[in-house]
Design a protein that fits this description.
Nuclear Transport Factor 2, Chain: A; globular; 6-stranded mixed beta sheet; alpha+beta
Length: 172
């Protein structure tokens, strides 16, 4: 079994090696499953669970529900941000509360594309892209815009059987 540091370096290496792009699809389990190559290392059931979790996370995120978003993380989860790492569910909830309170845009749509998902027992490693359509909240007259970010997430199956995020990195 990999240690946390080994998972991190594996993730960094995989991000560095992934240069190709795929066409984006709608944020549904069926669309993502259809996009996966037949030789995927992730069992279809795990892929379905993680994609469904991503859809739920994105919905709660776009509505600004910090407490519910934080429930998708393990108690000792780490979110890696440009300002530094946030560790633990309470710190993560606080981060999202502050982010949502100061958010200058309204999220109109979110599209998540899982590019790779590798599973080893009760741990999984996912990479992909998130594209959000944003509209400025202020009456600036500015048009809606799209923002696309790449992400890497380490997942862990919790004792209740749900997949939760243990470590997450989103990069512009």
């Amino acid at each position: 079994m990999f240690s946390g540091r080994q998972w991190l370096w594996l993730g960094v290496a995989l991000i560095a090696c992934s240069g190709g792009t795929k066409p984006e699809t709608e944020n549904t389990v069926d669309a993502v499953m259809a996009e996966r190559p037949p030789a995927s290392q992730a069992p279809a059931s795990v892929m379905g669970e993680i994609v469904a979790t991503n859809v739920s996370w994105a919905d709660l995120y776009s509505r600004g529900n910090a407490e519910q978003v934080a429930l998708f993380y393990t108690e000792d989860a780490v979110i890696m941000t440009p300002q530094g790492d946030l560790t633990g569910a309470a710190a993560i909830a606080g981060h999202f509360r502050a982010l949502f309170a100061t958010r200058a845009d309204t999220i109109l749509a979110t599209k998540t594309v899982t590019e790779a998902l590798d599973v080893a027992g009760d741990r999984a490693y996912e990479t992909g892209t998130v594209t959000r359509t944003l509209r400025p909240r202020a009456d600036s007259g500015a048009p809606s815009r799209e923002v696309r970010v790449r992400y890497a997430t380490f997942w862990e199956r919790s004792p209740d059987g749900r997949w939760r995020m243990r470590r997450s990195l989103r990069a512009p």
